[in-house]
Amino acid sequence: MGGHFRHTKWDPFLIISQIVCLQALYYLGLGIWLILMNFITGDLLSSDTVFNYQVLNLSEGHGRIISTAYVLNALFSALALWWVVQRTKLCLDFSCTTLLYHVLLCWAVSGRWPASATWWLVQVVCLGLACVGGEFLCMRTELAAIPVGLGGGRVDL
């Protein structure tokens, strides 16, 4: 079937590899941001900071620090989407998949379904930031001008 711009075929290995890579980058970025934030504030870091939804409470200073780390990680996730996925139309899919696995891991580790409205608000805002940021970066790359005629040679059509 000819005439399709950037025709892609079904490649489950590539898709699974991209999901694993994005999930690893998500937790790597979140870990780095949390370490930096906790270093600045002097708070202790534990796995509850990442996986326990009850820790994310915006009425406390520690909860605001954690939410700031999540927002900064959303911007890092946008860069990861641009680097790993490189397709504008796939950014929403991969962003939602990353959030889905994060929710499932939080549920598995804490033993409870995340029931805090604040936790869900932060996650959805970060999902939007990562998705829109990734789409913006991918679109800029996809729409970049293709240089024609470099080298000054004559081209016969």
TrEMBL record:
Major localization listed first in the record, in broad terms: Golgi
InterPro entries: Integral_membrane_SYS1-rel (IPR019185)
Cell location: Golgi apparatus membrane
GO biological process: Golgi to endosome transport; Golgi to plasma membrane protein transport; protein localization to Golgi apparatus
Keywords tagged on the record: Golgi apparatus, Membrane, Protein transport, Transmembrane, Transmembrane helix, Transport
TM regions (residue ranges): 12-36, 65-85, 92-111, 117-138
Topological relation to the membrane, as annotated: Multi-pass membrane protein
Domain of life of the source: Eukaryota
One cellular component term from this protein's GO annotations in UniProt: Golgi membrane
Protein family according to the UniProt entry: Belongs to the SYS1 family.
Name of the molecule in the record: Protein SYS1
Naturally occurring in which organism (per UniProt): Amphibalanus amphitrite
Gene name as annotated: SYS1_0
